[in-house]
Amino acid sequence: MITQVLIGILSGAAILTAGILIGHYGISQSSSGAPPSWLKDVAKDVDESLIEKFLSEVDNIQIQENLRELTKVPHMATTAGDEQTVQFMLKRWQDPETGLDQAWREEYMVYLSFPDPKNPNKVTVVSPSDTVLHTAREKEKSYTPDQDDPEVVQPYAAYSPAGHAKGKLVYANQGKPSDYQLLNQTIDLRGTVAITRYGGAGRAAKAINAAPYGVLGVLVYTDPLDINDGLMSDIDETYPHSWYLPPSGVERGSFNTHYGDLLTPYLAAKEETYRIPAENITGIPNIPIQPVGFEDAYTLICDVKLDIFNHEEVKNSSNVMGVIRGSVEPDRYVIYGNHRDSWVHGAIDPSSGTSVMLELTRVLGSLVQQGKWRPRRSMIFGSWGAEEFGLIGSAEYTEQYFAKLSERTVAYVNVDIAVFANATLRASGMPSVQNILFAAAKQVDAPGLDSTSVYDNWVRYANRTSPALGIIPRVGYLSGAGSDYAAFVHYLGITSMDISYTYDRTKTNARIYPAYHTAYDTFDYASRFIDPGFVSHQAIARTAGNVLIRLADSLVLPLNCSDYAEILEDYLGTAMTLYEHQLRARNISMEPLKRAVASFRSAAAHLDRVIRTSDLANETPLKVRRINDQLMLLDRAFLDPLAFPNKHAYRHVIWASSDAGKPTFPGLADAFATAESSGQSRHWDKVHYHLSVLSQAIEGAAHTLVDVI
Q1: Which residues of the chain are under the pLDDT cut of 50?
Q2: DSSP summary character for residue 417
Q3: pLDDT per residue over 490-531, tens digit each?
Q4: pLDDT of amino acid 38
Q5: I want to staple 353 with a disulfide (CB 3.0 to 4.6 A). Which of 232, 269, 338, 449 is the partner?
Q6: Sheet holding 303-308, edge to edge
Q7: CA-CA distance, 685 to 688, in Å (whole number)?
Q8: Which residues form a coiled coil (predicted)?
Q9: Active-site residues: which are they?
Q10: CATH assignment of 561-705, among 1.10.287.110, 3.40.50.300, 3.10.129.10, 1.20.930.40
């Protein structure tokens, strides 16, 4: 028996050796003795000369004309103007000379909320006998023909319920839970109408937080101190004389806390998809809420009456999709997205981003159509629909293609508002993308500055000290759901980033560009006050396009796990300072979390070493693929579908949203804040639970970075 086993082993070894030799010579030589043609393509790295060519061909005038076309008419989701932009995108992406390999529309039937044009929402000041003393504007004041377009939607709060509320007006600051709690200590809030200012709490939260106190309705306005540096006069201070918001300007918005279609949670909203009853929707206000301008907020006193006639309906909304197929790894996707719909003309939000995306695809499409280039990996472009109603288009896309995107997506690049202003770059993303953002920014000239790169300009405006790298630009985190990266980050765990140009925060206190979501966000506003000459748009197109090409063409994905380890160590340090003493007193140990972070650091250093010391261009393609899969799938390891049961579609335990406002692990921070406030043992148990979730997720992620067992 032993002899037979030995003979079998030796025979098997001989066959295996012969197979390797045959395979080696079969691969390394063709019939002519030369290596096969595909071998060079498989080993090819990013072409720096191609990036230089791309940078030189991005045209600011093309971007300007894109924006002019996109902002001719208002294009709120599902309107005729929206369909006009769909057709424009399809025409450009299907152009035989500058288009993509393929472009198409993806349609969803989604639940949206609209005002009634025949019965406008009203806000009035009334006397005790219901005599109307003042009526708030139903439309913003006109300064250009743009505001007179009949398709300009009345300012309203999407997903506010219809209803009528009358009561004494009370000022509730930002509508945070603490604001109502403090107010209720001195005033009986039952039967009142609250007026709040934007900021501090989410739009919907201002009404959701008010309802338990018996508040009947809520108004929300943009405070001139928060948006205009205190300026209020349209005679010579605000638009049309500057970028500041005119007194009648009103910020529209979606007043819900969840993202995606509200009737089809975790399902793509196709025509025959199951829908929950509308009365089972959560995360929307249950009392009327309406936005007003600071002009009206200034005059509202005494008894206020709200008459809200919003209605909801299921309507067809489209994403426009395009693809450039990869030549070597077509089953690996780099996705670039920007939403298309706006509240009115939307020159900055979102058409600055759309105009940049169209220029970027024009340059890349031309290279493809001329046969001069094809990316290693596939590039997918998404023009998302109905984002303004709650990131609907991108969320439905991730739900429909959940399995494919989870398995194959390398990264997602989001450019929503490309240019808030023209001072400096602003970027947020997973820590692993820091390296590629820096590399791209160093190759782009900063607009209006001689011999200065976007990187050098950026580090002057926003920087931090890295233990490993010294003083570097500060990259933010994607910890909320502010744009279409949300579903990619929180639901799918895909490495993502968001890129824009922004303003000098030492010169203004504006929380965002002042015309945001108003009828004044027009081509005139963008071209005169945001980016004259469109050179900041050009810088963003160059930077984002550079990032896109590097992600698609690099032999080894330019993602850095050690940068991730550094941020996990920062988060751990903050958590130790804030929580360790009290947790130790309750016999809850943070040692497992410390060990997990240390393990991740060690594993990241190991993978960095493997990449640095390997001649991957001459290694088997399977080794390169294995390393790239480790890099690509890292953020998937941080997903836990049970970690946040009360937060729809939040599964990433490092970057989920947090109410605690602490720069550390979100689930732990929120659980600790709740436990500290209540003192209840069940809440301290939840802290322990989140420590375990974190520790095991980070430890699990570390194991994905080490050698295969």
Answers
A1: 1-3, 5-30
A2: S
A3: 999 999 999 999 999 999 999 999 999 999 999 999 999 999
A4: 75
A5: 338
A6: 132-135, 122-126, 303-308, 163-171, 193-197, 217-221, 289-292
A7: 5
A8: none
A9: 387
A10: 1.20.930.40
